[in-house]
Amino acid sequence: MSVSITGLSYTYPGSDSPALRSITCSIGTGEYLAVLGANGSGKSTLARCITGLLVPDAGTVTIDDEGGVPTALVFQSPGDQIVAETVELDTAFGLENLAVPRDVMKERVPRALDAFRLASRAGEASALLSTGNKQLLALAGVHVLESAVLVLDEPTSMLSPVVRAELLDYLDTRHQSGGTIIHITHDRDEAARAGRVLVMEDGAVVFDGTPRELHTVSGADQERWGISARFPEKPVSRTVEDIILECRDLCEGPLENFSARFPRGSVTAITGESGSGKSTLLEVLAGLRVPDSGTVTRAADAGSALAVQESEASLFAEFVADDVAYGPRNAGLSGKTLVERVSSAMDAASLPFAEFKDRQTFSLSGGERRKAALAGIIALDTPVILLDEPSSALDVRSRAQLLELIVSLASRGKTVIFSTNREEECRLADQVITLQVPDSYRVRPAVKKKLDKDQQTIERLRQGETGSYEKGTSVYHGLSPAGKYLCTISAITAALAAETLPVMLAVLALELITVLCSRYPLVRLGRGLLKILPWIALIAVMQYAVFRGQSVNPVFLLRFIALFIPLSVFVFITSHTEIMYGVEDLLKPLNVLRVPVRDLSLLTGIVFRFIPLLYTEAGRIARARIIRKAGRSENRGRFHGLRSMASLFVPLVIRTLARAEHLAEAVTARYYGSGNHTRYFYWTSGLRQHVLVAFSLLLAAGIVFLSIISRRGSV
Asked: Using CA atoms, how far apart are residues 495 and 253, in angstroms rounded to an integer?
C-alpha cells in the first residue's frame, strides 16, 4: 500500500506559524522511510495527517486502499495511547472495533503480547505499567492490527538498549515481509536501517534521499537541522570523599536491598530494563516516596529537586517564564533577582529566555516542554539535581546541550543523578548503577510508614490511581455486566422506595448480606461511611432548622447509607470494561430506534475510567508542586494558600482536557466507530447468577409494591 502526499499544510489553532508547509512526497508500497528533524520541525504533525488524526488546511494524503487495515500509529507519548484498563484488553481494542472474530483475537492478542514481552502481564492494569512497558503496550496494540502502513513516532525513546534492539529487528522483519514503515526518530543509527530518509526543518522537507546520501551533506547543515551535534567529553575523573547522599538496604517496589553512595559534585547514571525501579529510586532520593525498609542519609545541605518523566505534569503557569519562576518565587525570590534566575535557567536548558519567555507552555512541542520542565528544576538551584530520563523526546542537538548542562552543573559542585536508556550518555558519568528487574515481586510485610504531610498526599493519590475495582471469585464477581447493573439498580430502587423504618432496616440488612457475599472489605465500607456521615449530619441539621417543631426523619437519613452501599459494591465488583459492556447490553433494544448505544456505553466507560486518571494527573501535579516548594510557606497568609490551591486546580483541569483529547485520538486511531464490533471477553452466567438477579429484581418489586400499598392505606 502506497502513500501519496501533495501540498500538505497545517497550522495548529492559535499558532502564528505553520507546522507543515506545502509538503509533497510519496511513499511506495513496502518502503521503509525514516523521518529525522529537530524538536518542533513538524514530524509528529506529519504522522497525524497521514493517519487521519488531523485534517490538513491544504493539500491531500492519499492511501491506496487494498482492503484490510490501511494505517496504524504508535504515539510519541505511550500513556496517551492506552484506552482499556488491562494489558490484554488494550491490545484487543482495535480488533474489537474492526469486528475481528473472537477466536481470531484470542490467537493474535497473546501472540502480540509475547512479541513485546508482555505475555506475563496480560491481566495487569495498563495504567500502572512503567513508562517503558507502556511503550511496549502501545506497540503491541498497533502490531496486532496488522496494518499495511505502520507509522511510529519515536517508538524507542523510552526503551532500554535490549528492547530497542529487538524493536528495530522487528521493523526490519516487517519490512522484509513487505510492510510499509514510516519511522520518525531522532537517532541517525536507527534511520540508517531505512532505505530512504526525509529530514524536516520548520515544517518543510529539506532532504529526501538515502542514508548514504545524507552522510555527504555538510556537517553545518546537519547541525542546523538538529540531526547532528558534538557531544561533550567526560571531564577528568576525581576522587571525592564528601558524600552528600547515601542509601543503605533500600526495599521499595522492585528495589531490593539497594545501597549506593553519591559524592558531592559527581554525576551518576542509573540504567536498567523497564520496571527495574529507576523512577522509584529517584522518587525515594527526592523524598517523595518512603521505602518499606532501609535508610537514606543526607548531608545537612542536600536539598534536591526531581525533573519527572512526564514533563507536562510539571508545567503550571500559562507562560513559560512564569512557569520557570514558579519554584524560585515560592522560595521568596522577586524582582531583578528572580528575572535573572529564570533567564539563566532557561538559557541553560537551551530554551532561550528572549525567544520563549512569553510563549504559552501548552503550545510547546514535546521536546520544548521537557526543556521547560528542566529549566524549572535548574531555577531551584538545589545541591542535588535528579533527572528521570531527561533526554527522551529530545533531538540530537538538544541531547548534546543537555549533556553539556549536566557536565556544567557538576563542575559547579552540583550532584547530578539521572536515569537513561542510552549507553553513550553513561560515558559522562562518574559512576553507573544498573538496576535489575526482579524475577518476581516479593510480598513484603505491611509496614506503617511515617509520612509527612506531602508524602501522605502523594500516597493517597497513588492509592486512588488503582481505582476501587478488585478481581474476585465471589458470586457477585461472576455476574455478567448486565447482571451487575440489574442487581445494583434493584438495590437502589428498594432504597428509594422504602418509606417506613422497618422496611428501610430490612433493606440495609439485605445490603449488608450483599457486602459479605461480594467479599467487599468491611473496613473499606466503614471508612467510606465515615466520609459521608458529616454530610448526613449536615442534612439532618438543615432539615431540623427548616421544619422546626418536627422530629428528624430517620428513614430519610438512612436512605443515603442505603444508596451508598450498593454503589460501593458495584464499583468494587465491576471493571471499567464491564461498566461499558453492561450499558451496551441493557440499552441494546434502543438500536432499533437508531440510538447510538455503543457511543453511550463508551462514554460511560470513559467517565469511570477518568476517575483513576484524575488521581494519576493530580498525583503528578502534586509531586511537581512539592518538588518546586509550593505550599511550603504557609505563614504567608490566606491568599497564598488560595493561590497554592489554584496552582493545583488549574493545571489539573488543563491536563484533564488534554487527556480527554488524547483519549479521543487514541480511540479514533484504533478505528472506533468503523462499523460492527466484537468483544474480546464474553461472560457466561450459571444458575446461581440467574437466581441472584431474579431474586434482586423480585425483592425490589416487592418493596415498591409495599410502598404503594402503604401510601394508599395512609390516604
From this structure: 43
Please check whether residue 612 is in contact with residue 656, taking contact to mean a CB–CB distance below 8 angstroms. no
Residue with cell 526525509: 198
Beta strand 71-74 with 255-263: parallel, antiparallel or unpaired? Answer: unpaired
Per-residue exposure over 72-92, b if at least 16 CB sit within 10 Å of its own CB, e if not:
bbbbbbbbbbbbbbbbbbbbb
DSSP secondary structure code for residue 125 in this structure = B
Beta bridge partners, 4, equal 26, 62
Exposure string for 704-714, b = 16+ CB within 10 A, e = fewer: eeebeeeeeee
Residue carrying the nine cell digits 559542585? 413
Distance CA 622, CA 609 (A): 20
Contact 135, 158 (CB under 8 A): yes
Quick one: pLDDT band at residue 6, thresholds 50, 70, 90? very high
Give Dmax over CA atoms of the chain in angstroms: 96
Q: Give the C-alpha separation, 681 to 85, whole Å.
A: 13
**DSSP symbols for 336-388:** HHHHHHHHHHHHHTT--HHHHTTSBGGGS-HHHHHHHHHHHHHTT--SEEEEE
The answer to whether 353 and 345 have CB atoms below 8 angstroms apart is no
Q: Is the distance from CB of 134 to CB of 78 less than 8 angstroms?
A: yes
Long-range contacts from 349-353, C-beta under 8 angstroms, 24+ separation: 349/374, 349/375, 349/378, 349/405, 350/398, 350/401, 350/402, 350/405, 351/320, 351/375, 353/321
**How far from the centroid of its chain's Cα atoms is residue 165's Cα?**
25
623-674: pLDDT as tens digits: 877 887 754 444 444 455 455 555 566 667 767 777 778 888 889 999 988 7
For the stretch 282-304, pLDDT in tens is 999 998 889 999 999 999 888 89
The pTM (predicted TM-score) of the whole model is: 0.85
Cα separation, 105 vs 573, whole angstroms: 25
Report how many helices (DSSP H) and strands (DSSP E) the chain contains, helices first. 25, 17
Return the bridge partners of 250, or none: 258
Q: What is the CA radius of gyration of the chain?
A: 28
| One-letter amino acid for residue 715 of the chain | V
Please count the CA atoms within 13 angstroms of the CA of 137 that sit on its side-chain side.
33
**Residue 595 vs residues 173, 576, 579, 601, 607: alpha-carbon distances, Å:** 45, 22, 18, 11, 19
